[in-house]
């Protein structure tokens, strides 16, 4: 949420700032801006809308300067327009910010009373004005910043430059992620290592409360008490190559089509296909003695966790609670020491999930991160990490991260079950066989993309869409509804099929498509009965099952598609694909912005 980048370079930095912002645009795209120092004075270029608008502005009005900061915005305070775009600046200082300054109104009132004139509606401008205030009193940039940081409440990653100081920049982190990059006679800062990868592979991560003074030769880092600290410089695994869409029209489509490969790659880290066993990476706690599991995540990652609840409870016979991170953190749940808390996050930076992790750690839980970004904060703070090898996911709507999360969770469920002696070698072998076949089944289904495209035409005119599923297909129904909402802006709800009669059935008429996720498993008959209830009321059922399931349906649905037959255990992974493709094609039919849907951002680093 909001991406920031900063460079102390040897030549004009504006083009490099824009390059860095391109790699951060997934974090927000309401507006963008940069500030550099030209002859010691602050020069800004800002533009409303996507980064392309800023790039165009810079072509018309280039800006020089060997030091600069840049920002791509996801609006929190103040509508997205040029006036509210970062950097926020006074004559003396310019600031880019990711996060929320919670006490900005109090600061603004104070500073306004002292004669400061605010230009924007943002919380960030209070930081610029506060530092300016201290600079005006004769403090050095470093002291003015230190004094200002003491006053800030909330979450922030800040990049700050100062008029008349072309050789230094300040970075500060509280809550929101911030990385420093070490170049040859150049220094960089960025919201993540991905943004900095084309500039340098040598990265260090600031910890909460840290702030740093950067010069061309390096950085002096201070902790929240002002003591000088060192933070390990490591080599990032991110490639500097710009991630392209390949032959696909959108990142989302490319990422959907990458799934056979990334599911296979993720499986390979744990599955031995010859022996048909799962080997989990060694963990610093014994899964065999864990007595309780809690899974905490947001959005799509939460739905992956919800599928895992079915898997772990059934296979490992362990009680699992699944929580939405933003609810969990304020509920202050009592926790008995010795439990296992699993945190699922593509980005590894989601603020609520991170806060939940810290809470669980403080309450004596073993913490296990399941992330797609190995260097992320959640990964660094958890006791152990399991990685999804989905590769960078750029489309805002999560697709390949979800299915690789499911793969890891399926393996984890098997690993837990075995360490507790809850499954036989035979069952493990069957599940392993089914998992090993998933990449091929997904690839097989993806070849039928055109059929989904045609199906989507009938849905794109709908105002409301319902998704139904039972058992582990219920979270897939929820995920399908979320995907459709977020990229096509059609109102959609996922329901447990058995809940239909308890209310939602009142919505059924011939204008409401009802998408049913119904593999032939032990619950097939029950869901099929619910389908009949919908058909009887004129509902337009779109039925996803396998051939047997389609054939067994008593009355024909509006549309049906037979997926490859699979072991029911792995069905949630396969059935995620049609709901992703359906959302994609409906969005295309509606002409919405698939990769950058309105109001959304990929990495939610504010509450
Ligand atoms: C939906 C989507 C979001 C994320 C959620 C959590 O397509 O992408 O719902 O799943 O914001 O993000 P992570 O997994 O990065 O914690």
UniProtKB/TrEMBL annotation:
<feature type="active site" description="Nucleophile; for GATase activity">
    <location>
        <position position="2"/>
    </location>
</feature>
<feature type="domain" description="SIS">
    <location>
        <begin position="283"/>
        <end position="422"/>
    </location>
</feature>
<keyword id="KW-0677">Repeat</keyword>
<dbReference type="GO" id="GO:0004360">
    <property type="term" value="F:glutamine-fructose-6-phosphate transaminase (isomerizing) activity"/>
</dbReference>
<dbReference type="InterPro" id="IPR047084">
    <property type="entry name" value="GFAT_N"/>
</dbReference>
<keyword id="KW-0315">Glutamine amidotransferase</keyword>
<dbReference type="InterPro" id="IPR035466">
    <property type="entry name" value="GlmS/AgaS_SIS"/>
</dbReference>
<feature type="domain" description="SIS">
    <location>
        <begin position="455"/>
        <end position="597"/>
    </location>
</feature>
<dbReference type="GO" id="GO:0005829">
    <property type="term" value="C:cytosol"/>
</dbReference>
<dbReference type="GO" id="GO:0097367">
    <property type="term" value="F:carbohydrate derivative binding"/>
</dbReference>
<dbReference type="InterPro" id="IPR001347">
    <property type="entry name" value="SIS_dom"/>
</dbReference>
<dbReference type="InterPro" id="IPR017932">
    <property type="entry name" value="GATase_2_dom"/>
</dbReference>
<dbReference type="Pfam" id="PF13522">
    <property type="entry name" value="GATase_6"/>
</dbReference>
<dbReference type="InterPro" id="IPR029055">
    <property type="entry name" value="Ntn_hydrolases_N"/>
</dbReference>
<keyword id="KW-0808">Transferase</keyword>
<keyword id="KW-0963">Cytoplasm</keyword>
<dbReference type="GO" id="GO:0046349">
    <property type="term" value="P:amino sugar biosynthetic process"/>
</dbReference>
<dbReference type="GO" id="GO:0006487">
    <property type="term" value="P:protein N-linked glycosylation"/>
</dbReference>
<feature type="domain" description="Glutamine amidotransferase type-2">
    <location>
        <begin position="2"/>
        <end position="217"/>
    </location>
</feature>
<dbReference type="GO" id="GO:0006002">
    <property type="term" value="P:fructose 6-phosphate metabolic process"/>
</dbReference>
<dbReference type="InterPro" id="IPR046348">
    <property type="entry name" value="SIS_dom_sf"/>
</dbReference>
<dbReference type="GO" id="GO:0006047">
    <property type="term" value="P:UDP-N-acetylglucosamine metabolic process"/>
</dbReference>
<dbReference type="GO" id="GO:0005975">
    <property type="term" value="P:carbohydrate metabolic process"/>
</dbReference>
<dbReference type="InterPro" id="IPR005855">
    <property type="entry name" value="GFAT"/>
</dbReference>
<keyword id="KW-0032">Aminotransferase</keyword>
<dbReference type="InterPro" id="IPR035490">
    <property type="entry name" value="GlmS/FrlB_SIS"/>
</dbReference>
<comment type="subunit">
    <text>Homodimer.</text>
</comment>
<comment type="function">
    <text>Catalyzes the first step in hexosamine metabolism, converting fructose-6P into glucosamine-6P using glutamine as a nitrogen source.</text>
</comment>
<protein>
    <recommendedName>
        <fullName>Glutamine--fructose-6-phosphate aminotransferase [isomerizing]</fullName>
        <ecNumber>2.6.1.16</ecNumber>
    </recommendedName>
</protein>
<dbReference type="Pfam" id="PF01380">
    <property type="entry name" value="SIS"/>
</dbReference>
<feature type="active site" description="For Fru-6P isomerization activity">
    <location>
        <position position="602"/>
    </location>
</feature>
């Amino acid at each position: 949420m909001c991406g920031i980048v900063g460079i102390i370079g040897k030549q004009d930095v504006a083009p490099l700032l824009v390059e860095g912002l391109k790699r951060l645009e997934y974090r927000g795209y309401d507006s963008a801006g940069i500030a550099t120092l030209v002859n010691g004075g602050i020069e800004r270029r800002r533009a409303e809308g996507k980064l392309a608008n800023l790039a165009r502005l810079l072509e018309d009005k280039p800006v020089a300067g060997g030091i600069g900061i840049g920002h791509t915005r996801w609006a929190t305070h103040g509508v997205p327009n040029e006036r509210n775009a970062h950097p926020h600046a006074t004559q003396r200082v310019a600031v880019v910010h990711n996060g929320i300054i919670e006490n900005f109104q109090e600061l603004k009132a104070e500073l306004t009373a002292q004669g400061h004139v605010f230009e924007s509606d943002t919380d960030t401008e209070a930081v610029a004005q506060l530092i300016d205030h201290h600079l005006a009193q004769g403090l050095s940039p470093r002291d003015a910043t230190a004094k200002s940081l003491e006053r800030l409440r909330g979450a922030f990653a800040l990049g700050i430059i100062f008029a008349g100081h072309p050789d230094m920049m300040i970075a500060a982190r509280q809550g929101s992620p911030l990385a420093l990059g070490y170049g040859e006679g150049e220094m960089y800062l960025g919201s993540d290592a991905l943004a900095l990868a084309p500039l340098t592979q040598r990265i260090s991560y600031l910890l909460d409360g840290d702030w740093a003074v950067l010069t061309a030769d390096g950085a002096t880092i201070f902790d929240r008490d002002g003591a000088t600290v060192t933070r390990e410089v490591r080599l990032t695994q991110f490639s500097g190559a710009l991630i392209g869409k390949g032959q696909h029209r959108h990142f989302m489509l490319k990422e959907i089509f990458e799934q056979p490969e990334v599911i296979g790659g993720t499986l390979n880290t744990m599955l031995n296909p010859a022996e048909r066993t799962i080997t989990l990476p060694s963990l610093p706690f014994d899964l065999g003695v864990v007595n309780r599991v809690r899974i905490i995540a947001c959005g799509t990652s939460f739905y992956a966790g919800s599928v895992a609840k079915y898997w772990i409870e059934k296979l490992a016979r362990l009680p699992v609670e699944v929580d939405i991170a933003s609810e969990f953190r304020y509920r202050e749940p009592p926790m008995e020491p010795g439990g296992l808390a699993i945190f699922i996050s593509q980005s590894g930076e989601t603020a609520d999930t991170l806060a939940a992790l810290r809470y669980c750690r403080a309450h004596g839980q073993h913490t296990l991160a399941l992330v797609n970004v190995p260097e992320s904060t959640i990964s660094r703070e958890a006791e152990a990490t399991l990685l999804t090898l989905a590769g960078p996911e750029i489309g805002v709507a999560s697709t390949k991260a979800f299915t690789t999360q499911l793969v890891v969770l399926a393996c984890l469920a098997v690993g837990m079950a075995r360490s507790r002696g809850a499954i036989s070698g035979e069952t493990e072998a069957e599940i392993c066989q089914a998992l090993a076949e998933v990449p091929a089944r997904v690839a097989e289904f993806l070849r039928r993309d055109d059929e989904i495209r045609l199906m989507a035409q009938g849905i794109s005119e709908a105002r409301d869409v319902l998704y139904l599923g039972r058992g582990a297909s219920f979270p897939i129904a929820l995920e399908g509804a979320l995907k459709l909402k977020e990229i096509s802006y059609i109102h959609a709800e996922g329901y447990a099929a058995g809940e239909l009669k308890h209310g939602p059935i009142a919505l059924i008429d011939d204008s409401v498509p009802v998408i049913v996720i119904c593999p032939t498993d032990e619950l097939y008959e029950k869901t099929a009965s619910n389908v009949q209830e919908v058909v009887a009321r004129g509902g337009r059922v779109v039925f996803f099952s396998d051939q047997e399931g389609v054939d067994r349906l008593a009355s024909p649905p509006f549309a049906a598609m037979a997926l490859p037959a699979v072991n029911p255990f792995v069905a949630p992974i396969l059935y995620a694909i049609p709901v992703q493709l359906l959302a994609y094609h409906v969005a295309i039919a509606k002409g919405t912005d698939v990769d950058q849907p309105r109001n959304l951002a990929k990495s939610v680093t504010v509450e």
